Amino acid sequence: MAGLSPRLVLSADGWFTATDLPGAFHGTEGVVDRNSGSGSWKFITKDGRQQIQVSFDGDYGTQFEIAKDGGVWRLFYFLGDPDEHRRLEYTKGASST
Questions:
Q1: Residue 12 per-residue DSSP state
Q2: In a 10 Å sphere around its CB, with 0-12 CB exposed, 13-18 middle and 19+ buried, how is residue 74 labelled?
């Protein structure tokens, strides 16, 4: 998936748009797709940790872990078993507004 410029825009009204997000969001283990579209997002708590759940229009989605490292907010997603350390990470870019 080299050469992609993935983008995830979370709006304050609970909606998002995504372009070329790599991930196995359709529930098929080991199959990484490029995901584009829109849908809703919300904060959830799972295993005592706050996460962001994104639900694409079309009944698929995922949860992103939330972390703050060095003053930078990061969203990340594991591909498969977290012990394998295959992680996709997203950081906040420049705002267009």
A1: T
A2: middle
